Amino acid sequence: MKRSIPLRGWVFAITVVAVGAIGFHLVIPWAPAGSVFREARFATIVDAAAAAIILILGGWLMYAVNADMRSLRRGIEKMSTGDFGDMMPVAGSAEAQALARAFNALSNRYRGMYRGIELERMRLAIIVNSMPDGVLLMDRNDKIIFMNKFIQEAFKPKGDQGGLATIGTLFPGLNREQVMFHMQSSTSYTFEGRLGEQYFSLTFRAIAGRGPELEGIILWIRDITNERLLEQSKDEFLSIASHEMRTPLTIIRGNAELILDTVHSEHDLSKMRDTVQQMSTSIHESSIRLLEIVNGFLDSIRLERKIDLKPESAKIENIIENIVKDIKPSFEKKNLTITVKKPAQELPTVFVDVGALRQALMNIIGNALHYTEKGGVTITIEAEKEMAKIYIRDTGMGIDTEAQKTLFQKFQTSAKSFGRMTEYGSGLGLYVSKLLMQAMHGDIALQESAPGIGSTFVFMVPFNRPSA
Amino acid sequence: MKALATILLVDDEPEIISLYRQVLTKAGYEVRIATDGPAALEAVKEELPSLMLLDVKMPDMDGLEVLAKLKMTKEYGRFKVVFLTAYAESNIAGLSDEALKELGAAGVMQKGMDIHEFVNQVKGYLAE
Predict the structure, then answer these.
(1) Is the pLDDT reported for residue A364 higher than 80?
(2) Of the candidates A345, A385, A338, which has an alpha carbon nearest to the alpha carbon of residue A361?
(3) Domain limits of chain B?
(4) Quick check: A42 pLDDT over 50?
(5) Chain B residues lying within 8 Å of A239, measured CB to CB
(6) Over the stretch A382-419, which tens digit does the pLDDT of each residue have?
(7) How far apart (Å, rounded) are the C-alpha atoms in residues A439 and A444?
C-alpha cells in the first residue's frame, strides 16, 4: 500500500511554515522594489494570516486529539462495565493509533480473563444450584444475599424479613436470638427441625470478618428425612428383634433354672425324669428357634446389603425333585403327601442361584408341612413367557386376611399391630425368601389362602435368556 | 396344702405358659391359664383371680386391649393386673412403664428375669 502523508502531517508542515513566517517577519524579497510585498505592512498581514492559520489548525489539532481521547475514554468506560465486546478503532494520529492498539491488547487480555471468571462463576452456580443441600448467605445486617435453588424451591424465604428472622418463622422452635446466642460461643450451630413430613438439619456457620464483628452467616440446610426414617426403622427393628429373642431366652433361662433347682433339691433324680426331660426339650426347642432368629437376622442383613448371588443355568425340575427327595421323610412322618406336577415337555433352563432358590422353596414347603395336619402339598411347575411358575399348594390351616397383608414383611409385623410371631419360625422366613427371589429377578407371592382350606404360594423364576 | 393364691396367666406362647406355670406352681400358687385375650376375660368372669399376669404382645387382642375391655367390667379393681412383657421397654406401643401403669396395671414385669426374682415380684404384688 502506498504510504501517503497523513492529514496531520500536512497540518504540522503548514503550521511550521506559518510559525516561520511569523518568526522571519516574512516579506517577498524578489518582488519589485516599492511593491507592497516588500513593505512591512505586508509582513504584518502575513503574520496575522499565519497567526490565524496557527490558531485554526491548533484548535483543530486539539479537537482531533480530544476526539482520540474521547474514544479511548469510551472504550475504558465500556470495559469497566464488563463489556469487552468492541475493539477500539485504530485511527487518528500515529500516537493515538499506538495507544488504541495497546489498549486493544490490554482489553483482549482482560476479555480472556473475564471470560474465564464468568465460566468459573457459571460452573460454581451450576454446582451450588444442583446441590442436594441448601446453602444461604446472610450479611451482618441479617439480609439474605444469596440462596441456592434448593432453598428457593423448598422454602421460598422472603429476604425482606431478614435472613435469620425468616428462617426462624419457617422452623418452629428456632429463632434469631437462639442462633445468635450459640454463635457467640461457637463458630457453628446445628439445629434439627421438622417441616411437615420432612426433617431438616440446619447448620449455621459464622463468617469471620477482619474485626471482632461477624461478617455474615452461612446456613447449610440438609434434608435428613431418609436418615430419620432409617433410624426409626432401625429402632423398631431392634425393639422387635430384642423382643423376639427375649422370648426363647426367657424359656431357656427359666427352664435351666428349674432344672438346677430340681438337681439341688431332689436326691432321687430318677423320680424327676419326666419333668427334667420336658424342661430340657423346652430348652432345646427354644435354642433352635433362637438360632433361626439369629440366622434370619444375618440373612436379612446380608440380603438387604445385596451381597451378590451366583446365578447359573439350572433345570428347575431337578431342583424341585431334590427338595422333594430331602423333605419327603418329614411329610411321611406326619402322614402327609407331597406330589410334583410338571408339563410333559421339558422346560427351558432357569437362571438362578441354586442354593438361594432352594432356601426360599424349602422355606415355603417347610411352612406348608408345619401348618398342614391332613392332606398334603402339591407342587405344580408351569412355563409362562420368560418365567417358570411354581405353585405350592397345601391343605393346611390357611392364613387369615389380616395376616396376609403383612405376610412378607420383617417379623410379619406392622408397627401398629405389634410384632406378631408364631411359636414356629423366626418371623423372617418369608421376608428373607422374598428378598432372595427378588435378588434373582424373580418373585414370590401368596396366590390365595382360605382359613381351614389351605394356602397357595407362587414362585416366579426367570428362564435363562440366551445371550445375544 | 391349700394354694396361696390364684394367678391367671395370660400368654399366647405355650412354652412361656409352661415355664411360668411350673415356676408358680412350685412356689405354691394355683395357676390358671388363658392363651388369648377373650379367654382371659372369660376366665375372670368365671372365677376371680388374685393376680393377673398379662402378656402385652398377643395376636388379635393385645394386652392393652384386654385391660381396656376389663376396665368396663364389674370385676375390674377386685384384683391386680401386672403386664408381663419381653420388650426391654414398652416403647414399641409408644408407652412407657409409667404409661402402662396409668392404664390401670399395678406394674410391669420383664420376661427373662431369674425365676426366683420372678416369684419374689409376684409375692410383692400379692402382698401390696
Answers:
(1) yes
(2) A338
(3) 6-127
(4) yes
(5) 87-88, 91-92
(6) 988 888 999 999 998 888 777 777 777 766 543 323 33
(7) 11
Distance (Å, whole) CA A173 – CA A229 = 21
Name the pTM for this structure: 0.56
Contacts of A51 (CB under 8 A, 6+ apart): A18, A22
Q: DSSP code of A276? A: H
Q: Is the sign of the CA dihedral A30, A31, A32, A34 positive or negative? A: negative
Alpha-carbon span B4 to A244, nearest angstrom: 33
DSSP A179-242: HHHHHHHSSEEEEEEEETTEEEEEEEEEEE-SSSSEEEEEEEEEE-HHHHHHHHHHHHHHHHHH
H or E segment at A445? Answer: strand A443-450
Contact A419 B112 (CB under 8 A): no
Buried b (16+ CB within 10 A) or exposed e, B8-44: bbbbbbebbbbbbbbbbeebebebbbbbbbebbbebb
Chain A residues within 8 angstroms (CB to CB) of chain B:
236, 239-240, 242-244, 246-251, 253-255, 257-258, 261, 275, 278-279, 282, 285-286, 415, 418-420, 423
Contact B12, A419 (CB under 8 A): no
CA–CA min distance A286, chain B (Å) = 9
Would the CA dihedral through A326, A332, A333, A334 be positive or negative? Answer: positive
CATH topology for B6-127 is Rossmann fold (3.40.50)
Q: What is the DSSP string of A297-352?
A: HHHHHHHHTTPPP--EEE-HHHHHHHHHHHHHHHHHHTT-EEEEE--SSPPPPEEE
Query: Which contiguous run of DSSP H or E holds residue A59?
Result: helix A40-80
- Burial of residue A277 (CB within 10 Å: 0-12, 13-18, 19+) is exposed
Nearest by Cα to A93 from A59, A64, A122: A64
Look up residue B21 and give its amino acid. Answer: R
Most A CBs within 10 A among B92, B119, B120, hence the mutation to make, goes to B92
Closest CB to A239: pick one of B56, B92, B111.
Answer: B92
- Return the C-alpha cell found at A241: 428383634
